[in-house]
Amino acid sequence: EVSVAPDHSKTVYLVRKANFKRQSWEKKIFLFDHEKQTSIAFVEDLEKIQRLSWSQNSESIWFLAKGDQHLALWKKSIQSERAEKIYEPSDDMESYAVSPDETKLAYIAKLPSGKKYLPAKAYKIVEPKGLWIKKLKSSDASHLVTTEQMCVGFRDEGGLSWAPDSGLVAFSYMPLDKENSYPERWVSHLALADSALLSCKDLVKEDSMNREPFYSHDGKWIAFTSNASSLKRKESKQFFFAEVQIISSDGKKRKKL
Q: Among 112, 107, 141, which Cα is nearest to 127's?
């Protein structure tokens, strides 16, 4: 796992080493300085480190690691000696994205109902998750902005991307089937979550897989992968060729790249 700073001056990367005494793997974050061409151990005193990302000013990194009980969001400045725990939810975070102005956190975690699905043809229990939004540096609780019919984080659905103005979050999800018993196979929609209204609306809703949204720097377009064209050629839903498409943030214009 590797993440390059926005100013291209540094890179952080994750190294996994075997601890033979504990009979386990340990993960450490290393910091590579592009100018000096040197690497140093940057974070090595936390467990279950994952999902590295940089702040907009390239002065600190965000990552997930074990908190008191669950996976929590941590931050460490290039200048500081120790990492700071920013927020630990009531359950593990699956994925996260910090807003560009660093005032809000969007993350994927289990639903409060704890609902699980096991249809007759399934080989394992599925516990769908939802999209939550939390104001950082605030005592306010986090808010679930998706419904139980929107399965976020299932089969890696739910890539999160903030708009440049830190207002909207683009994400993907799998809807439940007609019986509301299991996530719809080979279908995923794109949606936008409003961090002010704490609600969401569909952006691309069709019988195809639309995933991995990413906002343009000006906030006018959202790039994503889609197999819609593949399905029009009557190719199998299970084995398809995805292509990159872009859609305007208001959903009125859409085209292939």
A: 112
